[in-house]
Design a protein that fits this description.
single chain; about 600 residues; mainly beta; twelve-stranded antiparallel beta sheet; five-stranded antiparallel beta sheet; globular
Length: about 600
């Protein structure tokens, strides 16, 4: 049999490193040039309000050549202390031509994560550069005071790994005015990590926990948790792993391929967050991601969990532990989370409790099925399926200055995965079709009156076809085809009437075939091509469409606005076309 697991792990671990009030939505890549081999993505940037922003530079042209953090000091913009309509982080990164791994990149302030992503791998001829943005408006309370932060991009530079990473980052503050309202932002921001400046926590197993015990205000009205769970090391390719019982038979990583973040408060299940199958720019086949990386590879989006049913419990004056675990973690996930709290400005004491929690007792245990069979010649074929569907309701009340508010989160979450194997003397083929989703409805009642309702749907379609063929002389080829999708629907209702709705669809398709000699060394590649399509629409009349294609590592086509009114992208500055979380009833409120 072709030792497929050997090849791919060797490839990665030894590094074949090869109103429409205004404005047009910002473009993440400015004026891409056909034929360029530099990084190009179709994602939108963060739309901005009209008027010039105030700016605070966090660091400029810092080099990352080791695993030491790069500290920086932060102070709010002088003469521009808020309130702000929007706050945006911008960062620009580059890596010199040569050989280098993809690296994890994080930015922090006072223990709170400001940015989480990975870096582009260079080549001998290309020194890639890229731009990322994150809407930090909901973190404005954190940014009103001075603090210490740090940038972390662990990197090795020596005679073999020569790529030096450079970075610059700034915060842009857009002041509120008579024309541009101030954002309704959380009153308090709490990192779950223990590092006072900021760092991720390693979760090696399902029992490892990222947790913090907090003494919260006694007038919590709403609460949310922003969650990042990034796969690393043995979990980097978690979406291809199989249950331990089949790992040796199909030459794959064990531990299964179901992953999900589990959130708890004082040990009680409080919510879940699906894990996105991010693929880094050295993953599977590095040529797949030149010049267009996978979905969100360079700029992860957090998943926001609604913890509002716990508002009364969190306000009781006692310390409370907020915790995060990753079901299925198998060495390891890198995690961080941030708790966002809205307070009742008109009372010092909110009281209440959880009255219903059907998530408790629903263990995240998937159903496994298999049709795998190995014949007398050692040929193996068949499918492994992994499925889990759960429905739960979490309800609690809080007695506030507005009356007794009952908050309910109803959620359906699912994971459906099928892996097909064809293994014989000349072929190792693994086909993976995966679909994870989350449907949630958050409701607030005053008495019997439904006042506010939020409906969100996230779905993560993913497919990988990995086909390795062995020739009679011992050489081989490894063809990979990847599809990644990110879909999001958001709908907000007031007194039963829809006041806002938005849809996002982000897709990346990429293919490449590696050629290897009999020793397993890569001798070339062929057929590299990729396409990205990004679409956003909302009920304010906003529309953003962008598409691009690449071939042989260079941009071959790029279009913007096709399919939007007037063939032009136009999005209100209040919207979130990038998919960043927003807990307001209306954009900008």
């Amino acid at each position: 049999m072709v030792p497929k697991g050997w090849f791919r792990r060797r490839l990665v671990l030894t590094g074949v490193l090869l109103a429409l009030a205004g404005g047009l939505v910002a473009q993440a890549s400015a004026d891409p040039v056909i034929g360029s081999s530099n990084v190009v993505v179709a994602d939108p940037g963060v739309p901005r309000p009209p008027g010039p922003p105030c700016q605070v530079v966090l660091f400029t042209d810092v080099t990352f050549t080791d695993f030491n953090a790069r500290p920086y000091s932060y102070a709010p913009p002088g003469g521009c202390g808020g309130p702000w309509a929007k706050v945006v982080l911008e960062a620009d990164f580059s890596v010199t031509a040569g050989r280098q791994y993809d690296r994890t990149a994080t930015l922090w302030l006072g223990g709170v994560n400001l940015y989480f992503g990975t870096t582009q791998e260079p080549s001998a001829a290309v020194a890639p550069s890229w731009h990322v943005e994150r809407d930090l408006t909901d973190y404005a309370t954190l940014l009103r005071r001075a603090g210490q932060g740090q940038a972390i991009i662990g990197n090795v530079v020596n005679s073999t790994y020569t790529g030096v990473i450079h970075g610059t980052a700034r915060l842009l503050f857009y002041p509120a005015s008579a024309q541009v309202r101030a954002a309704d932002v959380p009153d308090a921001v709490y990192p779950l990590g223990s590092d006072p400046v900021g760092s991720t926590t390693t979760l090696n197993s399902p029992t490892d926990t990222l947790a913090r015990t907090l003494s919260l205000p006694r007038n919590v009205e709403r609460a949310y948790l922003d969650v990042f769970t990034q796969s690393q090391s043995g979990d980097e390719f978690w979406y291809t792993c199989v249950p331990n019982a089949y790992a040796a038979q199909v030459q794959e990583c064990g531990g299964g391929n179901f992953r999900e973040a589990e959130i708890s408060i004082d040990g009680q299940p409080a919510g879940v967050a699906p894990v996105y199958p991010w693929i880094y720019t050295g993953g599977i086949d590095p040529y797949l991601w030149r010049p267009t990386p996978g979905v969100q590879t360079l700029d992860f989006m957090p998943y926001r969990v609604d913890l509002t049913p716990f508002a009364g419990q969190l306000s009781d004056g006692n310390p409370h532990e907020v915790a995060l675990q990753v079901a299925g973690a198998n060495g390891y996930f890198s995690a961080t989370a941030t708790l966002l709290v809205y307070r009742d400005a008109h009372t010092k004491q909110v009281s209440g409790r959880i009255t219903r929690n059907t998530l408790a007792g629903q263990a995240p245990t998937p159903r496994i099925g298999s049709t795998l069979a190995t014949d007398s010649s050692g040929n193996t074929s068949g499918d492994i399926t992994t499925r889990l569907n759960r429905h739960f309701v979490i309800e609690g009340y809080a007695t506030t200055s507005h009356g007794r508010i009952t908050s309910t989160v109803t959620q359906d979450v699912g994971f459906d995965d099928r892996q097909r194997f064809t293994i014989n003397s000349s072929t190792y083929r693994q086909q993976t079709w995966q679909y994870a989703w989350s449907d949630s409805v958050s409701q607030s009642h005053v008495g019997n009156l439904l006042t506010v309702e939020r409906r969100e749907r996230f779905s993560y379609p993913f497919a990988l076809d990995y086909n390795q063929l062995l020739a009679s002389d011992g050489s081989s080829s490894s063809g990979s085809t990847v599809h990644q999708g990110y879909r999001q629907h958001d709908e907000r209702r007031l007194l039963g009437m829809t006041v806002y709705a938005a849809d996002i669809d982000n897709r990346v398709d990429s293919a490449d075939t590696l050629a290897l000699d009999a020793s397993g060394a890569v001798t070339g590649h062929s057929g590299q091509q990729s396409a990205q399509d990004f679409a956003f629409r909302d009920s304010l009349g906003g529309c953003y469409r962008a598409s691009l294609t690449t071939q042989a590592g260079a941009l071959t086509s790029d279009s913007n606005g096709q399919g939007c009114p007037g063939q032009r992208n136009r999005v209100s500055w209040l919207a979130h076309p990038d998919g960043s979380p927003d807990s307001s009833l209306l954009p900008g409120h």
